[in-house]
Design goal:
mainly beta, 8 strands, globular
Length: about 120
């Protein structure tokens, strides 16, 4: 969680997975509802970016897309696929996120070694 804004950053341990942020309607009270967004890595053609082969320390230009149905039911499209359809970036098994000085940081699983990526958003 960003200690200044109250924005909550989330990951999921799945493939494909998304890197999310939750914008609470009321700062400090996320249980009051809010908006779930998924990270979009900006590409020249607007397509969804896969980070499956990126190494450690890669920096990206990013923005966010809104997940329309975060509370999906059985048989409906899960959030990572909703975001991917809107051009959001997909990852292979993000393992967790933490707040590192001034920005969220995440790690992911890999067959050989875990990698770490730092994402700085061009929009808040």
């Amino acid at each position: 969680m960003d200690p200044n804004s109250g924005i909550v950053y989330l990951t999921e341990d799945s493939t494909p997975s998304g890197f999310y942020r939750y914008l609470p309607n009321t700062q400090g009270t996320p249980h009051d509802g809010g908006e779930l967004q998924m990270l979009l890595v900006e590409t020249s053609d607007g397509r969804s970016y896969t980070t499956y082969t990126d190494g450690t320390g890669i920096e990206y230009f990013t923005s966010w897309v809104t997940i329309d149905y975060p509370d999906y039911a059985a048989g409906e499209t899960r959030p990572a696929l909703q975001g991917q359809a809107k051009g959001a970036a997909v990852f292979r098994r993000l393992e967790g996120a933490w707040w590192e000085t001034t920005a969220p940081t995440s790690s992911r699983s890999a067959a050989v070694r875990p990698a770490k990526a730092r994402c700085s958003s061009t929009t808040q």
